[in-house]
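subagent[fold] <- orchestrator: predict structure for attached chain, return tokens only, no commentary.
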Amino acid sequence: MNEANVNGENTKRAKNPKADLEMMYIDEYLQGKGYSRKGLATLSEEERTRLMTEASQYASFKLEELESRARLLTKINDVNDFS
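subagent[fold] -> orchestrator:
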């Protein structure tokens, strides 16, 4: 996961688009739960950890889904190139 402090500010700028996408998915998950990375500072450490764990799992799932779709499209295009 891209380094971020509790206030949601990046401590190190993402060096690749995948890291930016991961943070977008984390923000999306937190927003769906009514929070933001900044808003996590008001929660207990236990609650913060739980939410960030869930958000990270969600982001991992979404990234894998995206990569799977890209692989499938590549296979479809490869088959079409031979037709």
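orchestrator: received. Logging for downstream: The helical segments are 17-32, 45-82. Residues 17-82 form one domain.
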